[in-house]
Amino acid sequence: MAQRLALQRLLSLPARGPLASHGRTFGTSGGRRSTFNVQDGSDFQDRVVNSPKPVVVDFHAQWCGPCKILGPRLEKLVAKLEGKVLMAKVDIDDHTDLAIEYEVSAVPTVLAMKNGDVVDKFVGIKDEDQLEAFLKKLIGA
């Protein structure tokens, strides 16, 4: 378990060095990625609840077919916003406590959070137009 957490933390760090430009990257702001995987409860508190920027929280699972469609679609739209909003990915199998705390009863569940508060939410898959409207409402555009 400790090795898996260490590997997850390593994989969530931004790429550096001469090969960095060859990897898949997302929009950055101040050297940080727009999309990140939540590591634990304190990471969620630091990077989501205490974030000065709005955060979209994608509660998903590896076994969830619709999650595999929604996740990349949402990541692409968040990256287009170039740091105006962040995206936190929470695997419900790894972080059951967060799923329970935020009353996630089905996946995918997406929360919109501002200043640590849930301001909007949807469950299930959405098309790109619906996702754009959801994100624009969150950032006030």
Automatic annotation (TrEMBL):
Recite the UniProt keywords alphabetically.
Answer: Disulfide bond, Electron transport, Redox-active center, Transport
In what residue span(s) does the Thioredoxin domain sit?
A: 11-140
Q: Note whether Nuclease occurs among the keywords.
A: no
Lineage top rank: taxon: Eukaryota
The record's annotation in InterPro entries points to: Thioredoxin, Thioredoxin-like_sf, Thioredoxin_CS, Thioredoxin_domain
The answer on whether this UniProt entry bears the keyword Acyltransferase reads no
**One short Pfam family name for this protein?**
Thioredoxin
Q: Which GO terms describe its biological process?
A: cell redox homeostasis
* SUPFAM superfamilies listed in its UniProt record: Thioredoxin-like (SSF52833)
What are its GO cellular component terms? mitochondrion
Gene Ontology MF terms? protein-disulfide reductase activity
Extract the PANTHER family matched here: THIOREDOXIN, MITOCHONDRIAL
Family of this protein? Belongs to the thioredoxin family.
Q: What is this protein called?
A: Thioredoxin, mitochondrial
| Protein source organism | Cinclus mexicanus (American dipper)
- The gene from which this protein is expressed is Txn2
